[in-house]
Amino acid sequence: MTEPQRNEAIATRPDRDLVADLTSAALAVAAPEEVEAFAANREGFLDGRLATTSKGDDQLVGIGVEVIGMLTPYVVAAATAALRVIAAAVADSATAEAQGTVRRWIHGLLHHDPKEPAAEPLPADLLRRVHEITYDVVSQMGAPPADATLVSDAVAGRLATTPTQGEEPR
């Protein structure tokens, strides 16, 4: 795989664990009652087996789990989109080594050890772009505007901050 192909793959397929981490962190803000269901059905949500219907009627499909009305599929899609935006922001000039650094940096934003220095926050213009893209993605999935705002605020907000001292890393 050439370097441009590798960069494109990273930009189009965010690391699955980072998507799960960001989803969990955003759910803790937007829909804390759904964190446990996401953890128990993580692979189904990440694979899209537990996803919104194409009708945008807030009905969700899945086998063996009650998922009607959940925000989780929207948050998964928003987290994926957010990580794509971030990856795309560095992909043009990033080497494979730099991409690993970016992955560790994002991981540090989500799992800050209070004993270690905090990761630098994302630049404000990139956070605005993440917010816009995640709102658009969730809206296109058929979420009501209030839910799209809640999800995009939670995802962008979680990327804008690191856990504070005393808060458990997610």
Radius of gyration: 16 Å
Work out the strand percent: under 5%
Q: Count up the helices.
A: 8
Run of helices and strands: HHHHEEHHHH
Distance between the termini: 33 Å
Instruction: Detail the poorly predicted runs.
Output: 1-12, 53-67, 164-170
Q: Structural class of the secondary structure composition?
A: mainly alpha
User: Using DSSP, what is the number of strands?
Assistant: 2
Question: Helicity level, as a percent range?
Answer: 55-70%
Let me know the average pLDDT: 75
Spatially, the strands of the biggest sheet line up as: 1-2
What general form does the structure show? globular
Report the biggest beta sheet as strand number plus sense, adding barrel if it closes: 2 strands, antiparallel
How would you describe what is shown here?
The protein has 170 residues and is mostly helical. The chain contains eight helices and two strands, in the order ααααββαααα. Strands 1-2 form a two-stranded antiparallel ribbon. The protein starts with a helix and ends in a 10-residue tail after the last helix.
